[in-house]
Fold:
Amino acid sequence: MFVQKPPMGYNTWNTFGHNIDASLIKETADAMVDNGLLDAGYKYLVIDDCWSERHRDPVTDKIVPDKKKFPDGMNAVSDYVHSKGLKFGMYSCAGVRPCADYPGSFDHEYLDAVTFAEYGCDFLKYDYCYKPETANGEMLYRRMGLALENCGREILFSACNWGSDGVHGWARSTGASMFRSTGDIFDNFKSFSDIAFSQIDKFCYSAPGCFNDIDMLTVGMFGKGNVGTTGCDLNDYITQFSLWCLLGAPLMIGCDVRNMEPQIKALLTNRELIRINQDEECRPVYEVRTNNWNNVHAWFRHLSNNEYALGVFNFTDGDARPIRVELFDIGLSLGCGKALELVDVMSGERFENVTETFSPPMNYHACRVFRCRIVDAK
Ligand code: GLA
Structure:
């Protein structure tokens, strides 16, 4: 399935792990609509691991939904999700068992693809646990890619092999629409910033058709749930969401959307950040030289319609300081007659006729994202 822009949606894993059932999915679907997430672009509601019985059906060999968690079957759930205008996503694994020890799709790819189609599934996250040692991982993703394309239903293929086997080099060729490029995210500052940094130079492999997936967001979890550790504060979540948007990564929400703080709802539906994330040209960022302090970064990205995005990040633990960006490092040479005009997408603060150097004041752990234009210097 060909997607033009980074997919957006919600996934159960980060908050709920194995604590999932039909009521949770229905309530989540309601909340996605009522809280404006669908309107903002989050259209996939994905059930992650732990949705099935421990064993395949002995007669049909199909994976069957857990009868206690989904007493009316999976179609009742997918029908409900679809009735809200959302798309329905499910989960399986290229190995013999997913990470939580349910049946995996190894050697059952074609049967399972058809089963997912029967369940009304529109998105399949395909994990990598318990892969037989001698099986070739790349081939297993190719197999499921083909099986999905030929199962009779359009299903977005979300490959999740954690960045192993040089996946950025071949994911697109399997028919996948997104590929996980890192290990699992945890709900703390170090985890998400390490994940984002590790992929800065790999976003050149992310473009319409297939996007670099740096895992589900922990924004709004505040340490609660399945991948909750110390948790983050609101500032950290603003940084996380800004990073994912600036990089053009898929946006899969991982908090409990039924109980979001108002600031989290506002952040996850921030139109300006989402507009940058979904920019139709899908160009990668590049790193701009800054003052060269450790843990201080600036990234620049070309957007459509001659607009640009500049993200400035102060990852130091205790220093509030201006970060200096030299404009010649983004190609605005000294005396070229052009200037930068910037608007902070969160605060609306404007900076006009900026030439030579841009030094926005920055708190520690803070980030600022600017939408920019290049105009004649005054
Ligand atoms: C792996 C994946 C996670 C999640 C779990 C489920 O760890 O990377 O995103 O799907 O499996 O068991």
